[in-house]
Design goal:
4 helices, 53% helix, globular
């Protein structure tokens, strides 16, 4: 599957990296048989990919480890395509925001 993704890299990376990142994550999740869709949004600083759907919670993994692994892998793929570092942010079911909020609350309590 990874070989197929690499072979399908667009030739004009600057314009297509958002579609490439979205499609790559979607194919990985499809390979895991997750019933999900991927939404993509790009800013100048990062590519944001959000997993939505019935099985989106499965993409989180234990303590967000699956999200972290997907984020790392896609970050490497997109950065290689662009020829420069492009941070990729992957989330599912608002996990990252909830986790951030809980850490802030914990810090305030301490």
């Amino acid at each position: 599957m990874l070989e197929e993704l690499v072979a399908e890299q667009p030739s004009n990376g600057e314009e297509d990296y958002v579609a490439f990142g979205r499609k790559s994550l979607q194919r990985i999740l499809d390979g895991l048989a997750f019933d999900t869709e991927v939404e993509a949004e790009a800013t100048e600083e990062q590519l944001r990919l959000t997993v939505i759907g019935e099985d989106a919670e499965l993409a989180i993994g234990k303590k967000g480890q699956t999200l972290d692994a997907l984020q790392f892998l896609l970050g490497k793929m997109v950065s290689k395509l662009l020829g420069r570092r492009m941070p990729v942010w992957v989330d599912a079911c608002g996990y990252r925001e909830r986790r951030s909020d809980s850490l802030i609350q914990l810090a305030k309590r301490l």
